[in-house]
Amino acid sequence: MAKIEMTTPIVEMDGDEMTRVLWGMIKDKLILPYIDLKSEYYDLGLKHRDETDDQVTVDSANATLKYGVAVKCATITPNDERIKEYSLKKMYKSPNGTIRAILDGTVFRTPIMVKGIDPNVRTWEKPITLARHAYGDVYKNVEIAVPGKGKAELVFTGEDGKEIRETIYEFEGPGIIQGMHNKDKSIESFAKACFNYALSEKKDLWLGTKDTISKVYDRRFRDIFDKLYEEEYKKAFEDAGIEYFYTLIDDAVARVMKSKGGFIWACKNYDGDVMSDMVSSAFGSLAMMTSVLVSPTGVYEYEAAHGTVQRHYYKYLKGEPTSTNPVATIFAWTGAMRKRGELDGIQGLCDWADKMEKATLSTIESGKMTGDLCLITKLTNATKLGSEEFLDAIKETFDAM
Ligand code: NAP
Ligand code: MG
Fold this sequence. Notes:
The chain is of the alpha/beta class and 401 residues long. The protein has helices at residues 17-31, 46-51, 55-67, 80-85, 95-103, 184-201, 217-240, 249-258, 269-283, 310-317, 327-344, 347-365, 371-374, 387-400, and strands spanning 4-5, 10-14, 35-36, 39-43, 69-72, 106-111, 129-132, 142-146, 150-157, 163-171, 175-179, 205-209, 244-248, 264-267, 289-294, 300-304, 368-369, 383-384.
């Protein structure tokens, strides 16, 4: 059979440890036999990041802006131990942080659902996508431990020297204060990324904040979303048959637990941090969670939500058998290829992606899976396969289809 031809390259960001091992196997077994792969390859493995003083990360993000679609392998974020392990010149920043800053993007995380691994919440029939605003609030706060009696004030000094001043509290004894900020520009980018992604996925979009209590700060998020929706997105949403709505965060949480799923939930930074852990654990496994970074201009970078699976890698290096789940990484590739196919009008790429995802899920549903899934499945015929064996089983299912 002839291989599927591509016209525009995708940006390929290779990574570290066990996921790097899986990356090569996925390409050899599931991609190269079927697709005449055009990719611009960037090696974000920690060794090569060090050799290039991390320039390769910046270059890969700029290439993503140029071509519009990237697929990324998990990468090590260096800490003190990694500096020793890899004799690094310095403590590099998280590649995901660097890429996110260049693309000005929002991360959308979606669980991959499969028969036999049921969510802990009975009503969830479809995945819930969580969109976390990744700028500001408590993550860029300023805090003071108040030593004793005195007055705390919030002061803004304009460029013209004019002051806005509010009393926070007149302390009668020791306590604490905290200052936070966000920027209209960042909230707008977040809102645009959410609206564009909802349209591209044809899913409803929910936003929840605490604007009954925080009438300026949280209210600003609601106002910016509402305004953009009315002015730029309403028509497209109506045409697509999807809905945007705002509700109080308390109500959003209650509705989520009673919902059937199948929507995108936009959260402020802290809510997104906490709620994504709740949603992902309730759906089953971090190894079954995909992640896509979407820029406000519609540039997409796909990856798995989990890390480099270091513990499995050390076993692999010792020649011991591993059973590492490649599903989220496979879905990063299928997501990127489908998007490339949509943008370039290549139906073959979209079909390959649909079929590869189906083959992956039906392999699991037939009882063949990695160890992490064996532990949580309801299937009674589950067999634990090794990392490579499982990929071979997917290839077999795909070829049979
Ligand atoms: P991790 O790689 O996600 O792994 C944590 C544990 O979760 C594993 O030890 C394993 O449990 C289980 N697990 C995760 N993914 C799995 C998979 N695909 N198949 C089977 N089991 C899986 O997180 P980490 O160990 O905290 O971090 C390792 C490195 O990844 C760090 O250097 C960190 O900086 C990096 N990281 C990168 C990203 C990214 O690039 N997006 C994200 C997070 C972390 P068992 O060992 O019990 O089997
Ligand atoms: Mg968290």
